[in-house]
Amino acid sequence: MPVLPWSTIDTVLLDMDGTLLDLHYDNRFWLQHLPQRYAELHGVSRAMAELELRPLFEQHAGTLNWYCLDFWSRELRLPIRELKLEIADLIALKPDADTFLAAIRKAGKRVVMITNAHRDSLSLKLERVELAPYFERLISSHDYGYPKESPQFWDALQADIGFEPARSLFIDDTLAILRSARQFGVGHLLAVRQPDSRAEPRDTQEFTAVEDYRELLEGL
């Protein structure tokens, strides 16, 4: 992990799920809990539930619908918010993420959350993990109508908060989103090696990976 050139970074943009929060909660919900509850509530087998859900997930992956609880509630005829509450005890902060947030705020950096999470999902998580005080703004891509994978998201973010891309650091666990940020001109990009603490580490390809938030504080 190279030392970040903190003197050239004014703004820190941070993803939430998989970056600051353990992705285990989201993976458990979408891959296990939702198919099980879909099967129970629609009176089908678990195998049939997965056969019905998989093409829908594949069709909408990377779009704003993928992250929208209202969309999935309508599409699946299920109370998604209530179902997410059923395993909310799994929502957890990644190790030392709060130490990192406190240090960059103390150092005078502008800290902004940018998440694809729906506002209801964001609220659910902020009720269980105290993140809001560390941030100047908490921005959901649903506020703009475009996911972070889209160039239009970055245009909207620029118009909204007026940051300087070349003097910004962005950390995310999704490579397609990091590539979109790079295309926009964000100068410092880091991927997350292990978004889900109970899954295998990922290949972050061309991006330097975060494995320990304390390491990022060197030279701050």
UniProtKB/TrEMBL annotation:
Question: Per the record, a Pfam family?
Answer: Hydrolase
Protein name stated in the entry: GMP/IMP nucleotidase
GO MF annotations, alphabetized? 5'-nucleotidase activity
Enzyme Commission code(s) on record: 3.1.3.5
Sorted keywords for this record are: Hydrolase, Metal-binding
Residues in a coiled coil are: none
